[in-house]
Amino acid sequence: MNDEEENLQPSRPISTFNLETTLDDKEPLPLDQKPIACIVLGMAGSGKTTIMQRINAYIHEKGHPSYIVNLDPAVLDVPYGAHIDIRDTVNYKEVMKQFSLGPNGGILTALNLFSTRFDQVVDLIDKKARKLDYVFIDTPGQIEIFTWSASGQIISEGLATSFPTCIIYVIDTPRNTSPITFMSNMLYACSILYKTRLPFLIVFNKIDVVRHDFINEWMKDFEAFQDALAKDESYSSSLAHSMSLVLDEFYENIDTVGVSAMTGEGVEEMFKLIDGKCKEYEETYYQELLEKEKEREKAKLEKQDEDIRRLEQDFRRFNTAGKKQPKTEDEELQDFLQDIKK
């Protein structure tokens, strides 16, 4: 193994992360007693990392035992204590160097490498689940790398099949004062929702700079949004007008909250909504899991029945081939004459 390959190896194995295990807890936990896993997504500059810092402060203040996982391999420093950090497993700069990649390609490759052992992360969290209330997953600022990659799907589905899971989508409120920008962000949020099918919470961040009241009005009052669009006479505004009709149902079935990561305003309300996502998960995604499990079990039984049927057919063919055919009268007469001669 050369020096470059050694740099791609984990600086310490995942099994030695700061995760205490309780080997005596063998009984599976009921769904409502498992920690809620929250995957935090957001565009670059939305304040996602600052939100994570505020979340970390809140759970310590309220005494909620939680685990935080950092999945951004390119960040220099995180302002919170991550229990599991991708940087401890994959060297982002060495990945870029060895595979001749740019920044985005390096992040994607690092995430792909980490996802191959994410089942270990899930197992470690599961061993500690009895003592946890929440699990927060901080993702890269290059949101498309996580949401549209195979590794992102592996990680999100790996969590969702083991714990009640929700998506927290962080939006930069000051940047969305334009109705066109707001519509673009909502379309992206809608696409993530339909791709993951997980309970979804939109967090409007930086309300200490710009209040999010105008966004609430746009989402609840179709005419108010159309009035805002009327001020922009461009092709994009015409497109946004058409898309707003499509997103009307999306607005009715989505939870939103305004938060200031700097002052802490709205954080408590955000946690109340997160707690409600457990029931939503149980009523939606978990039911899909049960249906898929029934389908797999049905397919398994059907395959077993088919294998048994084929085995019985083969057995009958074998018996038929090995069984002597009844003798004719001439053959019996010949046997009788042979016996007389003897």
TrEMBL record:
Database matches in Pfam families: ATP_bind_1
Domain AAA+ ATPase: 34-175
Cross-referenced InterPro entries: AAA+_ATPase, Gpn, Gpn1/Npa3/XAB1, P-loop_NTPase
Chain segments carrying region Disordered: 318-342
Primary site of residence: cytoplasm
Family: Belongs to the GPN-loop GTPase family.
Task performed by this protein: Small GTPase required for proper nuclear import of RNA polymerase II (RNAPII). May act at an RNAP assembly step prior to nuclear import.
Protein name stated in the entry: GPN-loop GTPase
